[in-house]
Amino acid sequence: MEDAYERSNGIEIFGGSSAKESADKYEAWRNMTNPEKGAFVFYECSGLVQGELKDWGHVGLCIGENQVIHAWDKIRVDNYLEIENLSPAPSWTKPKYIGWAPLDRILEGFRVKDWLYDKNQR
């Protein structure tokens, strides 16, 4: 989600290396009510990636009216609480809602970045 937001807006934001790390950094746990439009919505979700088992998390973008666009087996739109009912991939846990972070919090400390110029650095 961060990568898509960065590249589509020509900026670099500074979350964690996983959705769960970003949720912790942005203190998503402070916002457990209905997410506001434009907020990043976070979930705990553990699984195995390249031999490492940990809580990588899951994140989507609230598009309003409690609807979140995210990638879970495909790009989809779901109610932010109903995402918890999605079937996980093999060896993964179901996503568990842990809160949301407003866009202004996500953008703290961002910098402008030319992704076309820097494409080989990422």
Task: Describe the protein's architecture and organization.
The structure is a single chain. The protein is of the alpha+beta class. 16% of the residues lie in helices and 33% in strands. The chain is built from 3 helices and 9 strands, in the order H-E-H-E-E-E-E-E-E-E-H-E. A 5-stranded antiparallel β-sheet has the order 7-6-5-2-8. The protein has a two-stranded antiparallel ribbon with strand order 1-9. The mean pLDDT is 93.
Strand count? 9
Order of helices and strands: HEHEEEEEEEHE
Outline the biggest β-sheet: 5 strands, antiparallel
Helix-residue proportion = 10-25%
Coarse morphology: globular
Question: How much strand content do the residues show?
Answer: 25-35%
**How many H/I helices?**
3
* Order of adjacent strands in the largest pleated sheet: 7-6-5-2-8
Rg from alpha-carbon coordinates: 14 Å
Which helices and strands, and how do they pair?
Blueprint: H1 2-9, E1 11-12, H2 19-25, E2 40-44, E3 46-49, E4 52-55, E5 58-64, E6 67-71, E7 75-79, E8 96-101, H3 103-106, E9 111-112
Antiparallel strand pairs: 1-9, 2-5, 2-8, 3-4, 5-6, 6-7
Provide keyphrases for this structure:
122 residues, 3 helices, alpha+beta, two-stranded antiparallel sheet, 9 strands, single chain
Describe what is shown at a glance.
This protein is α+β, with helices and mostly antiparallel strands and 122 residues long.
